[in-house]
């Protein structure tokens, strides 16, 4: 059973996700999402009243971070190399204020 | 020595016996890649200069009679979502087209320490999202056994490179089957380790509670060798775990292996399997019986819910993990000055004026940078996490995830006569045709139905070819999956190592 995603809802979701959706993509995207979400309906038939949600991969336990860990981190200079544009000691971004 | 015959083990023996040098072999691999990869499409970047330097270093150590690691000089292919310092790491996405990694992933650091050689970075579905490698933003990968078919995904480039002898072995990543399914489609071995066994530091996160890095190789023995090197706790990955594997990984004891009880879950065999897949399962079981292994029919009752559960949890994590790609850091597409058009946006039924040029950059960069499948999953993840839908979808999926895991706990419970290992098919079909499933995302998702439960439960699993397949032969490869208990990779790798020694 397909779930109905309206154009308004899709627009709202795209705003939340900070993604521009072209008008040519909209119809197919809404239809595909509706079909996928419709497939999820089967989960509603399961009784999970006394089941605890499982969020992690396997067992996790609290441990202390090892000593001197912070010194092993990537240097600022090295991290900055991964930035697309630089000028002198500055990271260059497109203008974000008007 | 022909490249076709090389496994890690044979390569190492050949080096010690001075049958060839590392450099010779590395150069033959590059020649093979240049001859063949145009029609396969397995590699996105080649690392020839550095690979030759690394090869010469190992040759020098051999010439000086220094002791070398078993992985020294081994020519490997690395999936392009794993970082190697100073090499591009695109994850097959336009949004990272110009990104150069500034550090080594922990697995790469460990392999460099052993002296391994990296031939290049392999193609994948964008950000590891897909089951056919058709979601790569740059090019598709063709299955070496039939060029009209897909190699599987998302580690399709890595599996195709190993299958077509363009690398001795490779690394991939597996979130819902991305190592095992392409291994099955390409007739090679793929191991998805226990969640936490291998550090994910330097692997681009897709769904952090499910992702694992693992080897794709020609033999189970090679998979054990690679896994043995990359495993271990890492302070840079808080989910990595400490576990003492002792010597069981590399030298499995047949007497111990013979005592393992194998479960056959009925839910995995009733899913409309293709004829060649069900025949493959019968053949694998028959061969395993010759080793003296015992089988038992079992049930994992929540199996059919795992797909829904996964396609809620995974996109939720994708939508948060991929938020970091905004076109400001890492890589940028035509970043001209962007003028805002101050239209109204609506959030929670209230209308706001969109003022910032910054958000305009985000929308445009992400809109242009992400492909269809990435967008679909980000929006889907945003939906299942949004107010009003969270409880019905995300929270319910997390509960079902526990039910799926508890199915396995019960099946493996030794105090209740449980089994040690579970055998299943890897996917309902062999490699499907290019474009067969691209228009219907749900049909594509269904090809992961038999690999997903393992990731939800955090278990280790291996895909092993039923028999040796010949490139150029008429037959499409079929693999079978062995699922082990948490941190019991030794069991499934051990069975695999004895399985491949069985003579036809």
From TrEMBL, chain A:
Function: Allows the formation of correctly charged Asn-tRNA(Asn) or Gln-tRNA(Gln) through the transamidation of misacylated Asp-tRNA(Asn) or Glu-tRNA(Gln) in organisms which lack either or both of asparaginyl-tRNA or glutaminyl-tRNA synthetases. The reaction takes place in the presence of glutamine and ATP through an activated phospho-Asp-tRNA(Asn) or phospho-Glu-tRNA(Gln).
Self-association state and partner proteins as the record states: Heterotrimer of A, B and C subunits.
Enzyme class label: ligase
Protein name: Aspartyl/glutamyl-tRNA(Asn/Gln) amidotransferase subunit C
Origin superkingdom: Bacteria
One biological process term in Gene Ontology: regulation of translational fidelity
Compositional bias ranges of the Basic and acidic residues kind: 75-89
GO MF annotation list: asparaginyl-tRNA synthase (glutamine-hydrolyzing) activity; ATP binding; glutaminyl-tRNA synthase (glutamine-hydrolyzing) activity; transferase activity
EC number of the protein: 6.3.5.-
Disordered as annotated region, ranges: 75-98
InterPro entries: Asp/Glu-ADT_sf_sub_c, GatC
Keyword set includes Phosphoprotein: no
Keywords: ATP-binding, Ligase, Nucleotide-binding, Protein biosynthesis, Transferase
Similarity-based family: Belongs to the GatC family.
Catalytic activity: L-aspartyl-tRNA(Asn) + L-glutamine + ATP + H2O = L-asparaginyl-tRNA(Asn) + L-glutamate + ADP + phosphate + 2 H(+); L-glutamyl-tRNA(Gln) + L-glutamine + ATP + H2O = L-glutaminyl-tRNA(Gln) + L-glutamate + ADP + phosphate + H(+)
From TrEMBL, chain B:
Described function: Allows the formation of correctly charged Gln-tRNA(Gln) through the transamidation of misacylated Glu-tRNA(Gln) in organisms which lack glutaminyl-tRNA synthetase. The reaction takes place in the presence of glutamine and ATP through an activated gamma-phospho-Glu-tRNA(Gln).
The family this protein is said to belong to: Belongs to the amidase family. GatA subfamily.
Name of the protein: Glutamyl-tRNA(Gln) amidotransferase subunit A
Domain of life: Bacteria
Gene3D superfamilies with a match to the protein in the record: Amidase signature (AS) domain (3.90.1300.10)
Organism per entry: Candidatus Jorgensenbacteria bacterium CG11_big_fil_rev_8_21_14_0_20_38_23
InterPro entries listed in its UniProt record: Amidase (IPR000120), Amidase_CS (IPR020556), Amidase_dom (IPR023631), AS_sf (IPR036928), GatA (IPR004412)
Quaternary state and interactors: Heterotrimer of A, B and C subunits.
GO biological-process terms attached to the record: translation
Catalytic activity: L-glutamyl-tRNA(Gln) + L-glutamine + ATP + H2O = L-glutaminyl-tRNA(Gln) + L-glutamate + ADP + phosphate + H(+)
Keywords: ATP-binding, Ligase, Nucleotide-binding, Protein biosynthesis, Transferase
Alphabetical list of NCBIfam families matching this protein: gatA
Domain Amidase: residue ranges: 24-493
Protein's gene: gatA
An example Gene Ontology CC term for this record: glutamyl-tRNA(Gln) amidotransferase complex
GO molecular function: ATP binding; glutaminyl-tRNA synthase (glutamine-hydrolyzing) activity; transferase activity
Catalytic residue list: 79 (charge relay system), 154 (charge relay system), 178 (acyl-ester intermediate)
């Amino acid at each position: 059973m397909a779930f109905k995603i309206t154009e308004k809802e899709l627009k709202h979701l795209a705003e939340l996700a900070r993604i521009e959706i072209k008008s040519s993509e909209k119809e197919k995207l809404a239809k595909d999402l509706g079909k996928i979400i419709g497939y999820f309906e089967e989960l509603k038939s399961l009784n999970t009243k006394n089941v605890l949600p499982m969020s992690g991969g396997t067992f996790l336990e609290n441990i202390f971070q090892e000593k001197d860990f912070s010194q092993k981190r990537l240097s600022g200079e090295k991290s900055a190399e991964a930035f697309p544009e630089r000028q002198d000691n500055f990271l260059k971004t497109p203008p974000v204020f008007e | 020595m022909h490249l076709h015959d090389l496994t890690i083990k044979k390569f190492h023996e050949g080096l010690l016996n001075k049958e060839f040098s590392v450099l010779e072999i590395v150069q033959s691999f590059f020649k093979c890649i240049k001859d063949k990869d145009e029609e396969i499409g397995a590699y996105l970047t080649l690392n020839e200069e550095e690979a030759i330097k690394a090869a010469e270093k190992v040759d020098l150590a051999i010439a000086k009679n220094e002791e070398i690691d078993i992985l020294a000089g081994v020519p490997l292919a690395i999936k392009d979502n794993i970082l190697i310092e100073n090499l591009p790491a695109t994850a097959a996405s336009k949004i990272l087209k110009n990104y150069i990694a500034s550090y080594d992933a922990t697995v790469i650091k460990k392999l460099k320490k052993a002296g391994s050689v990296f031939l290049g970075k392999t193609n994948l579905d964008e950000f590891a999202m897909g089951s056919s490698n058709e979601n790569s933003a740059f090019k598709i990968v063709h299955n070496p056994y039939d060029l009209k078919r897909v190699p599987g995904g998302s580690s399709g480039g890595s599996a195709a490179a190993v299958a077509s002898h363009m690398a001795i072995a490779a690394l991939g990543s597996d979130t819902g089957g991305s190592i095992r399914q392409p291994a099955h489609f390409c007739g090679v071995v793929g191991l998805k380790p226990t969640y936490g066994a291998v550090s994910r530091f330097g692997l681009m996160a897709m769904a952090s509670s499910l992702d694992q890095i693992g080897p794709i190789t020609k033999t189970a023995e090679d998979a054990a060798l690679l896994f043995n090197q990359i495993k271990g706790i890492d302070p840079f990955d808080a989910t990595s775990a400490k576990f003492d594997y002792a010597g069981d990984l590399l030298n499995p004891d047949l007497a111990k292996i013979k005592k393992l009880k194998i479960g056959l879950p009925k839910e995995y065999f009733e899913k409309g399997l293709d004829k060649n897949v069900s025949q493959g399962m019968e053949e694998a079981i028959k061969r395993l019986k010759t080793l003296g292994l015992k089988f038992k029919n079992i049930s994992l009752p929540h199996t059919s819910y795992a797909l829904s559960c996964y396609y809620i949890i995974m996109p939720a994590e994708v939508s948060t993990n991929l938020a970091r790609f905004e076109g400001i850091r890492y890589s940028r597409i035509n970043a001209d000055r962007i003028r805002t058009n101050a239209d109204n946006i609506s959030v929670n039924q209230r209308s706001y004026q969109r003022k910032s040029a910054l958000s305009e950059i985000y929308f445009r960069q992400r809109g242009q940078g992400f492909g269809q499948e990435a967008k679909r999953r980000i929006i889907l993840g945003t939906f299942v996490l949004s107010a009003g839908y969270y409880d019905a979808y995300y929270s319910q999926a997390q509960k079902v995830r526990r039910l799926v895991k508890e199915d396995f706990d019960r099946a493996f419970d030794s105090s209740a006569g449980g089994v040690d290992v579970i055998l299943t098919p890897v996917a309902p079909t062999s490699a499907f045709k290019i474009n067969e499933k691209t228009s219907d995302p749900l049909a594509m998702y269904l090809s992961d139905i038999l690999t997903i439960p393992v990731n939800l439960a955090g278990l280790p699993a291996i895909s092993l070819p039923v028999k040796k397949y010949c490139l150029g032969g008429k037959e499409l490869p079929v693999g079978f999956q062995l699922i082990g208990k948490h941190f019991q990779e030794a069991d499934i790798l051990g069975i695999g190592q004895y399985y491949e020694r069985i003579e036809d």
